[in-house]
Design a protein that fits this description.
The chain is α/β, with parallel strands linked by helices and about 250 residues long. It is built from 9 helices and 12 strands.
Amino acid sequence: MRETSLYSIVMIPARMASTRLPGKPLVDIGGEPMIVRVWRRAEKAGLGPVVVAAAEPEIAEAVERAGGKAVLTDPGLPSGSDRIAAALQKVDPYRLFGVVANVQGDLPTLPPEYLRTCAQALVRTGADIATLAAPIRTEEELKNPNVVKAIAPLSWQEAALAEDFVRELPEDHHGPAFHHIGIYCYRRAALERFVKLPPSLRERQRRLEQLRALDAGMKIAVARVAEAPFGVDTPAELEYVRRQVAQGKDEQ
């Protein structure tokens, strides 16, 4: 079923459990918790209401103190996609919103226009899901298996349907390579279908959740942006972002 409503809502899944950076959503960056910074960035996109899908009460309390909206979800949910789907049921039982954006809670310098680009790609391509990718410019990034690559004909298009997502490019790949950015816009029906699907074989092999959608015949649009936003997963990355914010470079 294709959702007809194009009203958008932005959901930010967040949980305290992080092996490399415990308590990540609440780490201080420039005087406020990281999750609050991400919420503020998402608000600036102007796509619609922004809701944090929080696994723990302390995350929800931090967001609400800053003036935002948060919904508690089962901490046992396996993924961010499951968390936003559960939160959506609570905040929108009457199905006003037909487009759902999923923003990672560890992107405190996310350019707000990236969210708009993702939503526009969903509408323009007619896909079930849209996501983002940026050109890979270094050999280190190209060879890093932690940098997921989107295979799509983006060298001549601003947005195109994904052919595959990989950690290592196939030997016969030619042309530009693109760094996949884990921001998604779903048609609501697609999100609800996605979270009910079992993990596919390729998803388990590559540890890439988006392959579940492709393997189920769902269409994923990939929109090109200038560069990948900086994510915070380790103490070193946290210190880097703190320096950027202190110098005002996060707004450039």
